[in-house]
């Protein structure tokens, strides 16, 4: 039996502004106020696991311990079929410059690696989101969402964040970065995981 969430405020253990805005938009209809990690002054724990769920657990439990409140985390990324699932859990690392994150650099790397092996089109990929809700007593619940699609080049659009400008979701011909966030939030990996979270923890 999934544990119910009965509060009106949920700490979202992320420092990623794009993720935070999406989560606020996704959970506001359920009367939940979403508070980000920066607002709670939470540290960013090191993500030492090699699975999405492992890293999501680290973030959610660290935040629940620090705040004494139920905390939500998201570990997400993109898996590219022709690159055997890379960058996967290392999606954010591909953007690391040593002095902040550069997603144009990360997307260019993905494109260059596909070109180097002359990967066939469509270049199938999936955005994946694993949400973990952790309570201060150590209990947690896990919800996963996958958005299938393909990669396009050159990058298109200026909405969203991260790898959105090169990802065309299945059934569409525009990238996530060309969609407004309402449209993206109906079909994204994070939206699908949130739907499961809402069903499991809000009974809705
Ligand atoms: P982490 O979950 O913070 O370890 O990093 C996930 C990385 O995946 C982010 O830095 C983004 O670059 C990428 N990512 C996750 N979700 C999305 C999305 O909805 N659009 C574009 N990029 C995403």
TrEMBL record:
Answer yes or no on keyword Hydrolase.
yes
The answer to whether keyword tRNA processing applies is no
Q: Which cofactor does it need?
A: Mg(2+)
Name one process (GO BP) from the record: purine nucleoside triphosphate catabolic process
Q: Which GO terms describe its molecular function?
A: dITP diphosphatase activity; ITP diphosphatase activity; metal ion binding; nucleotide binding; ribonucleoside triphosphate phosphatase activity; XTP diphosphatase activity
Q: What class of enzyme is it?
A: hydrolase
> Which of UniProt's keywords are assigned here?
Hydrolase, Magnesium, Metal-binding, Nucleotide metabolism, Nucleotide-binding
The EC number of this protein is 3.6.1.66
UniProt function note: Pyrophosphatase that catalyzes the hydrolysis of nucleoside triphosphates to their monophosphate derivatives, with a high preference for the non-canonical purine nucleotides XTP (xanthosine triphosphate), dITP (deoxyinosine triphosphate) and ITP. Seems to function as a house-cleaning enzyme that removes non-canonical purine nucleotides from the nucleotide pool, thus preventing their incorporation into DNA/RNA and avoiding chromosomal lesions.
What name does UniProt use for this protein? dITP/XTP pyrophosphatase
Where does this protein come from, organism-wise? Falsiruegeria litorea R37
């Amino acid at each position: 039996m999934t544990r119910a969430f009965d509060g009106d405020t949920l700490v979202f253990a992320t420092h990623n502004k794009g993720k935070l805005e999406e989560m606020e938009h996704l959970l506001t209809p359920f009367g939940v106020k979403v508070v980000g990690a920066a607002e709670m002054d939470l540290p960013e724990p090191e993500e030492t696991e090699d699975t999405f769920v492992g890293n999501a657990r680290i973030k959610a439990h660290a935040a629940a311990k620090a705040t004494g409140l139920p905390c939500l985390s998201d570990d997400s990324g993109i898996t590219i079929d022709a690159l055997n699932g890379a960058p996967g859990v290392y999606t954010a690392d591909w953007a690391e410059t040593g002095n902040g994150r550069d997603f144009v650099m990360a997307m260019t790397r993905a494109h260059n690696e596909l070109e180097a092996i002359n990967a066939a089109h469509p270049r199938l990929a999936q955005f994946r989101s694993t949400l973990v809700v952790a309570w201060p007593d150590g209990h947690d619940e896990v919800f996963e969402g996958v958005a299938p699609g393909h990669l396009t080049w050159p990058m298109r659009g200026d909405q969203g964040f991260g790898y959105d400008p090169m990802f065309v979701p299945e059934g569409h011909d525009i990238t996530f970065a060309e969609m407004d966030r309402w449209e993206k939030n109906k079909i994204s990996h994070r939206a699908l995981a949130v739907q499961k979270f809402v069903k499991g923890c809000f009974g809705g």
